[in-house]
Write a sequence for this structure.
């Protein structure tokens, strides 16, 4: 659970997802770049503790739902945030910046 009012892209979320821990977080900043609500995690509006609690409760009460979400979370991290993927993305960015300035 990450109940931030503002956020960048917290590594703790990527780490938890990589371990298959179901995520409930507020829909702020970089979290919405990683979490697709009800697919690989659950996003709730910030400053809504009752909605946050309901989302956590739903995961705890339905292990099948939580398990499926965990599997998709692991796949998201593997596909989009692996070291190889991140290095390739940075390399593409640096090559683009280099081409634009040469």
């Amino acid at each position: 659970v990450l109940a931030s009012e503002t956020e960048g892209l917290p590594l703790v979320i990527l780490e938890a997802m990589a371990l298959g821990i179901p995520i409930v977080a507020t829909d702020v900043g970089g979290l919405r770049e990683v979490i697709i609500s009800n697919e690989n995690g659950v996003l709730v509006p910030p400053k809504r503790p009752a909605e946050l609690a309901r989302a956590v409760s739903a995961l705890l009460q339905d292990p099948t739902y939580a398990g499926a979400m965990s599997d998709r979370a692991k796949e998201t991290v593997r596909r989009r945030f692996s070291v190889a993927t991140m290095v390739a993305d940075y390399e593409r960015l640096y090559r683009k910046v280099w081409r634009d300035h040469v």
Summary: The longest strand covers residues 24-26. The chain has a mean pLDDT of 95. The chain has five helices and two strands. The radius of gyration is 16 Å.
